[in-house]
């Protein structure tokens, strides 16, 4: 529920930059904060699963490349495209895509 509320707030902030344009709005800092919170929670839960013996991660070049792909593609490129789409189309049109 909290993630849905924060996502709505993020979309609303993109659609209301005030007197500045979208390029002047600090979207990168907000995005980095969201990614870091996600990494912390994921690390906490993964660490708990590994500590209790319910999960095992074999870290090799293939796993590392997949983690890098997941870190770059959806978490950076997709958020940037979403931000440009919301600022261009507006929050009313973007609401149909959620």
Largest sheet: none
Output the structural class: mainly alpha
Cα-to-Cα separation, first versus last residue = 14 Å
Order of helices and strands: HHHH
Number of strands: 0
- Average of the residue pLDDT scores: 77
Give the number of helices: 4
Strand content: under 5%
Q: Would you identify the regions where 5 or more consecutive residues have pLDDT less than 50?
A: none
Walk me through this protein's architecture.
- This protein is an all-alpha fold and 98 residues long.
- It is 76% helix and 0% strand.
- It is built from four helices and no strands.
- It is elongated, with a radius of gyration of 17 Å.
- The model has no long low-confidence stretch (mean pLDDT 77).
In short:
The chain is an all-alpha fold and 98 residues long. The chain is built from 4 helices and no strands.
């Amino acid at each position: 529920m909290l993630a849905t509320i924060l996502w709505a707030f993020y979309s609303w902030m993109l659609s209301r930059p005030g007197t500045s344009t979208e390029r002047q709005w600090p979207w990168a800092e907000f995005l980095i904060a969201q990614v870091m919170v996600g990494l912390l929670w994921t690390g906490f839960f993964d660490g708990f699963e590994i500590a209790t013996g319910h999960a095992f991660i074999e870290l090799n070049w293939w796993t590392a490349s997949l983690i890098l792909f997941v870190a770059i593609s959806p978490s950076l490129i997709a958020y940037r495209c979403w931000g440009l789409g919301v600022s261009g189309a507006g929050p009313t049109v973007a609401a149909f895509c959620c």
